[in-house]
Structure to design on (302 residues):
């Protein structure tokens, strides 16, 4: 990896050591696959020199709003009167409510819910679902008016469950009889930024990365398409702008069993198979030179 270093706690430490301190392992395998042939268009330019380590801020909760789309308005969560707007506003105002969580990230995604294609209210974004990571919990059939009280209640319950090491989740709330709580059965989620209306690089690179990853996950029997909830799979999806287009492709990974969150950057198609093998199958082995952020949360076995 070279001699990347950073001043930390008054001492100069090699990033390999920082990776180990955070509960991760440094991969001894190459980050590149020699047999992979896909490439990004040569017309795209990226920042290959900027310092990546901790180039994005830590967060404790990632709320993913399914839309079934692969691109969104410039401000993806900023359209007045929509479900995603209300969720985003809740996230912006709620970090202080849950000090155990800290910062809250809200994104929209290409993920779909079962009702999204048939229910007019979902299509008009009057109702919706959210996936809460790293908890691997779905909150479904929430109206715009219910967003604040439902998320207040569910997130508080999840925080309490983690704190008390409870191995079950509250699946219903009498005050919200229409809302459904479901535990997600996948072993991992992988997200690529595909927000073309914000930056062409992500709109071009994300589909190439996802295609490569889907092919390899199929070979391993881990691929899960829309509607396939067979336990133990890996779901790959697009999300909106998350910061750092110049570092494309950004890859955000959540591992259920270990509670690990990995954010890699400057990834290319020839990195896909090693990412699957090392980061997902081998549960969090990483390459320090590609890390923007790594976090390890207390895992919960629902």
């Amino acid at each position: 990896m070279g001699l990347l270093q950073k001043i930390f706690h008054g001492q100069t430490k090699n990033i390999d050591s920082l990776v180990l301190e955070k509960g991760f392992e440094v991969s001894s395998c190459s980050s590149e696959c020699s047999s992979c042939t896909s490439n990004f268009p040569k017309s795209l330019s990226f920042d290959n020199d900027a310092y990546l380590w901790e180039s994005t801020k830590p967060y404790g909760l990632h709320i993913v709003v399914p839309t079934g789309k692969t691109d969104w308005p410039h401000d993806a969560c900023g359209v007045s009167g929509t479900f995603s707007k209300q969720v985003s506003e809740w996230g912006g105002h709620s970090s202080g409510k849950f000090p155990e969580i800290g910062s809250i990230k809200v994104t929209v995604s290409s993920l779909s819910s079962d009702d999204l294609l048939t229910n007019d209210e979902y299509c008009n974004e009057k109702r919706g679902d959210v996936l809460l990571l790293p908890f691997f919990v779905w909150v479904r059939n929430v109206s715009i008016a219910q967003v604040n009280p439902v998320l207040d209640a569910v997130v508080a319950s999840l925080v309490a469950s983690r704190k008390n090491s409870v191995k079950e989740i509250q699946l219903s709330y009498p005050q919200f009889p229409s809302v459904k709580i479901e535990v997600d059965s996948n072993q991992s989620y992988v997200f690529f930024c595909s927000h073309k209306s914000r930056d062409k690089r992500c709109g071009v690179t994300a589909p190439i990365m996802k295609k490569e990853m889907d092919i390899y996950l199929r070979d391993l029997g881990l691929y899960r398409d829309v509607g396939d909830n067979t336990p133990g799979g890996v779901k790959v999806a697009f999300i909106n702008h998350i910061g750092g287009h110049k570092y494309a492709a950004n890859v955000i990974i959540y591992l259920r069993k270990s509670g690990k969150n990995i954010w890699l950057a400057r990834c290319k198609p020839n990195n896909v198979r090693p990412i699957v093998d090392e980061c997902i199958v081998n549960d969090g082995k990483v390459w320090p030179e590609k890390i923007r952020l790594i976090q390890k949360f207390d895992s919960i076995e629902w």
